[in-house]
Amino acid sequence: LSILTxxxxxxxxxxxxxxxxxxxxxxxxxxxxxxxxxxxxxAAYAVVFVAxxx
Length: 54
Hints:
By secondary structure, this protein is mainly alpha-helical.
């Protein structure tokens, strides 16, 4: 991101490209967090299930 910031300042890329990159990074962070809940919550239940058996 810092390299892209420098390139926007130098005029190699537009501000619209920079904003699109930032929006994409934020969206991927939010999506990744949401998907991690879909993985870790069932995994936690599996750990509890195994712990009860032991």
